[in-house]
Amino acid sequence: MTNRDILRRIRYILNYNDQKMFEIFGLASSHVKIDQVSSWLQPNKGSNEEIEEELDSESDLSICEDVHLATFLNGLIVEKRGKKEGTEIHNETRLNNNIIFNKLKIAFNLKAEEILEILKLVDFSFSKHELSALFRKQDHKHFRECKDQILRNFLGGIQIRYRA
């Protein structure tokens, strides 16, 4: 999944407009412009070849880098849970699916049982042990990489739970 796909899905799930998305970036001390946010939220059109050509010709405004998605997710955490006193928000420069999943878990204030229920909504079976492996540190012997399929199903389950 691309960063733009994740942003678009979260926007749809929460029914946010461009202005609200821009405000969430601001909660995490971001210096993005509203036209950047709007360009990230535009859907890809056409065939795979057209999309590849579009990606090759994209301006710097339409490229949603990891730091941008991290900023949005940190802003979403602040929006949903409030800002922690005395701590400065650190926006990661590199993201992977495990970090994204964890930030969404924090933002929606989900416990392991709730995540498993959300995954069941999309008929995706997952055990509590497999789930806990996704949230371990990368150097832990039981760490498991979060594949796109898991993240995609989790976002689909959140969509059913919060949007339906």
Could you explain the architecture of this structure?
- This protein has 164 residues and is an all-alpha fold.
- It has helices at residues 3-14, 18-27, 34-40, 48-57, 66-81, 97-107, 112-121, 128-134, 148-163.
- It folds into 2 domains: 1-95, no CATH class; 96-164.
- The longest helix has 16 residues, at 66-81.
- The two termini are 23 Å apart.
- Mean pLDDT is 87; it is low at 47-52 and 54-58.
Brief digest:
This protein has 164 residues and is mostly helical.
User: From the helix content, strand content and strand pairing, which structural class follows?
Assistant: mainly alpha
Largest sheet: none
Task: Please count the helical segments.
Answer: 9
**Portion in beta strands:** under 5%
How much is the radius of gyration in Å? 16 Å
Broad shape: globular
What share of residues is helical?
Answer: 55-70%
Give descriptors for this structure.
single chain; 164 residues; mainly alpha; 9 helices; globular
Write the layout of secondary structure elements.
Layout: H1 3-14, H2 18-27, H3 34-40, H4 48-57, H5 66-81, H6 97-107, H7 112-121, H8 128-134, H9 148-163
